[in-house]
Each structure stands twice: as structure tokens, then as C-alpha cells.
Design goal:
Layout: H1 7-39, H2 44-47, H3 49-72, H4 74-93, H5 98-126, H6 132-160, H7 165-168, H8 170-184, H9 198-221, H10 226-246, H11 262-292, H12 297-304, H13 306-346, H14 355-380, H15 389-417, H16 430-446, H17 448-452, H18 469-475
Amino acid sequence: MRVRPDQKPVVAVVYVAATFMAVLDTTIVNVALPALGRDLHARADGVGLVSVAYLVSLAVFIPASGWLGDRIGGRRALLGAVALFTAASALCGCSTSLGALVAFRVLQGAGGAVMTPVGLAMLFRVYPPAERVRISGVLALVTALAPALGPILGGVFTTYLSWRFAFFVNVPIGAATLVFGALGLARHAPAHPGRLDVTGLLLSGLGLGSLMYGLAEGPSRGWTALPVAGALGAGAVLLAALAAVELRVPRPLLDLRLLGNRMFACATGLYGLASVAYLGALFLAALFFQDALGLSAVRSGLAVFPSALGVMAGGQLVTRVLYRRFGPRRITAAGLLAMAAALASMARVGGGTDPWQVRLLMLCLGVGVSFVFIPSQAASMATVSKERTGRASSVFNAGKQLGGAVGVALLSTVLSAAGGAAGGGVPAGPDAYRAAFLAAAAAALLAVPVALAVRDADAAPTMTRPRNPRAARRAGAAPEQAD
């Protein structure tokens, strides 16, 4: 029998590549929307469905990812999701009508919804707690780099090539990931998760999907519009019913009992709330640099990019120096304060501001993000058993996706209410952007009490240093067995 290579680097490479594609897709396509709308002869109000379909599909399929990974094995679920996402990306790039493009975006979302939770569960199975802060630093960099890189690539593609390359860019990455994963990933023995919780699947899919649709459409159509208000109301009712049902069944699809685990609940809340501030701010900054400062799409993306460099620099501090010495509680609180300070300072930026000052603020924002994302992800599974890692990953990723959607919706609403229109219409004025940046800063500050509720003692297994690589391998998960 052929011996598989060490699973740690293999799982890490596959998961990082899959996450990069999924996160990049959320920002690169937004830049291409006007160009694809013109090419496909679509109305302005219909083009938004290209983004909405992807977000709703993510929300619908994420809850089932944990069960699927346990049922058919992590290797099959992850590689199947990567294949689906890659094929759907190619089909999106070849689309000749808006309807076909929206349908293929739904397929893309289904692949993306399974890739990240299953891959994260596999990652935390092969990396012992003592090594999770190091790998979380790599993941945080990808999470910050991809949305910052998206506007740059989207601007280059739509300006010099074609909007279709915003989708085609995933194809070589996905194909290489598939080949590498097929050769290197060990088979994961199914965990016998029991029968599919159909009631939980319907309630979670419809509830999260309705909520995501309402959040995505609310800023442009108005929160009192019947489709938006109806979707938000239905989503709230369905999610309340989901909580009542899932807390009673022995094998729930979405294991909400995990939120009774203090460390997991705090880490999920921190990541979600920080995503509200950070991903919402990236969306806001891209608009601000183009509408208020008159930069091109490419130059706007370059102005946002220092945030990724900040995550890279801050990640080195967190993983090498700070985390094992101070623990997640103080680091995440400091990171949130740094994010709030940087965002509040962005509210004072105007046409006469030195561009290097703006880049410095974006760099500081990235450092603050690294102080929140890395400790939160590293400590999230510290008190979760390996048997529940797959289900926990589904809940964690659902919170992360919802946080990003809330951030964009919140800041779009503030921007519109304060005197401008996000995504079309009358360009927003300086006062509107000032109010929106202050709202992003407030969102970061609201997460500080959650950070202070973290107990470093709960994260103690992730704060130890492996004595040597051989000891680390013995402490880690055993190699996944063949089916």
C-alpha cells in the first residue's frame, strides 16, 4: 500500500488554496459587476443577483458541511467541493446570459460552503492544539490577503482583459489543488454521523438563506421593501425554530449546543464581529477611494492592499512572541481597539490627505485584524473534542460568513442614510463616508466585551510549545486511515 506523505503540510496547502479561492471570489466579482452587466445586457438591479446568489448558496449549504464531511470522509468531501467550485467557476466565465451566470454562481456557492468548514475540521484534526496558533497565522493571512487582493485583480481584469477572468482565475488554482490533494491527502474514515437531520437542513438552509438575502438586498432596495422585510422576518422565525428543534434532537445537523462551550462561543463571536468591522471596512474603503478620492479601481485596490501587509506583520508578532506569553484574551482586546482607532482615523481622511497616511492607517487596521483573527481561530477548538470538530467548524464558518454579510449591509445602510447611495445612484459625500467609518469603528468596539469574556485557561492547550517535531507528531492526530 502506498504511504501517504505527512498530512500536516498537505492538508494545510489544500485548505489554504481552497479558502483563498472562496474568499477572493467575494470581492473580485463585485468589481466586475458593471462590466458583466453591460456585456450580458442585464439591468442594473438584476446584476446584483450575481453576488446575492453566491452569498445565499453559501448560507444554505454551510450547515450540511459538517455532516457531509463525517459521512463520506474529509478527503472525498473536500476534493469534491473543490472540483465543484472549480467547474462552476469555469462555467461562470463562459456564461452568455445573466440567468445562466446566476445558476452557476449557486453551484459555486455550494462548493465554497463545503470547502472551508470541511477543510478547517481536517486541519484541526491533524494539527495538535500546541501548533494551531502557527497555522492560524497562515489562515489569517489568507483571509485578509484574498479580499484585499480581489479589487486589484478585478480592476486589472475588467480594465485590460475581460470580466470573465474574474471567474477563470479560480480554474488553474482549483485544478492544481485537486491534483495535489488527490495525490497527497489520506483517506478519512467516515465517522458514522447518523442519518441526515432533514428538518435541521431545511430550517437552517431556508433560515440562513433568507437572512443572507435580506442583508444583501436591504441596502439597495430599502429595509422596508416587502421582499427584504419578508426575507429578514422569515429568516428570524426559521432560525428561532431551528434553535428549538436542534437543541432537542440527539444528532443535530447544526450543533448549537456547542455555543454552550465558553471558549468556542467567544471565539466564534469574536471572529464574526471582527468580520463585521473588517470586511465591511474593506468594502467601504474601495468605494471611498473611487467615489470620494477619484482613484481608479486598480489604484483603489492598491490603497487597500496595505491591510494585508499589516496582517502579515502582525501575524508574525502574534504567533512568535505574543500568543503563548499573553493568551488570547488581552491580544484580541488590544486588536479590536487598534482596529477601532484605525477606522475612526479613516473618518478624517479627505482629498488633501497624504496617501502614505492612508496606507499607514490601512496597515494598522491589518495589524489589529491579525491580533483578533489569529488568536480566535487558534483557540476556537481548544475545548472541542475531535469527534465534534466537523460540526463545530460548520457553526464557526456560518458565524464568519454572516459577520461579513452584516458588515457590508450595515455600512452600506449607514452610507445611504447619511447622504449617499452604495452601489449606484448619487455618489456619497464626505460626511456619509465619515459616518460609515465611525460605524465600523463602533462595531469593533462592540466586540471588546466578548474578548474580555475569554478565559485564557480554556485556551491553555494552544499556548504550549511543542518540545520537538517528533513530540509534536506524537501529540497530533493519528494519520487518517484508509476506508
